[in-house]
Amino acid sequence: MIFQFTTIAFLKNLNTMIDVCPCGSESFYTNCCRVYHSKSETPTTAEQLMRSRYSAYSLRLVDYLVETTHRDKLKSSYRRKLVATINDIQWTNLQIIKTSFGGVDDKAGKVLFEASYIEAGESGVMSEHSRFRKIAGKWYYYDGKGAR
Ligand SMILES: [Zn+2]
Questions:
Q1: How many domains does the chain have?
Q2: Residue 15 Cα to ligand 1 middle (Å)
Q3: How many angstroms separate the alpha carbon of residue 82 from the centre of ligand 1?
Q4: Distance, CA 84 to ligand 1 centroid (Å)?
Q5: What percent of the chain has pLDDT over 90?
Q6: 79-95, pLDDT tens digit by residue?
Q7: How far is the CA of 2 from the centre of ligand 1 (A)?
Q8: Which CATH number belongs to the domain containing residue 71 in this structure?
Q9: 15-38 pLDDT, tens per residue?
Q10: Mean pLDDT (whole number) for 55-59
């Protein structure tokens, strides 16, 4: 029994490793957002963090989403709410529309994106202007405003 479960977990893992990254980069997950999720690298631009957070939503990586939220905006209920809702939405596509600042030498940045999803059998698209800020050389999600 234990062997079977291990095999399934292993195959799932392997499958994720050879899959194309959910962030839409067309790179393999292993060479893309996984390096941020596994903490072997830190996103150097706001857009990289944005993409890696989208992938984290897609792969239900709650810890990563909590850890990359700016401390001034991190509410105590954030994790609980995330855990309660993260499985309700299946993210299907990410499109970065516009990026301003958020570069390697910037301290803040903005990313306008459109994310497609399926929720309760209905497909939809959400647009958001997300703001990002850097603390001690690391990018964090600050807040977001709906673009439509
Ligand atoms: Zn990616």
A1: 1
A2: 15
A3: 20
A4: 24
A5: 86
A6: 999 999 999 999 999 99
A7: 32
A8: 3.10.450.50
A9: 555 689 999 999 999 999 999 999
A10: 96
Which amino acid would we find at residue 3?
F
Question: Does 16 or 132 have the greater pLDDT score?
Answer: 132
**Under 8 Å CB-to-CB from 111, ≥6 apart: which residues?**
46, 47, 50, 96, 98, 99, 102, 129, 130, 132
CA of residue 52 to ligand 1 center, whole Å: 6
> Alpha carbon of 111 to those of 4, 50, 114: distances in Å?
43, 8, 10
CA of 128 to the centre of ligand 1 (A): 18
Residues ≥6 apart with Cβ < 8 Å to 10: none
27 C-alpha vs ligand 1 centroid, how far in Å?
A: 7
For residue 120, the enclosing domain spans: 2-146
Instruction: Report the separation in Å between the CA atom of 55 and the middle of ligand 1, taken as the mean of its atom positions.
Output: 6
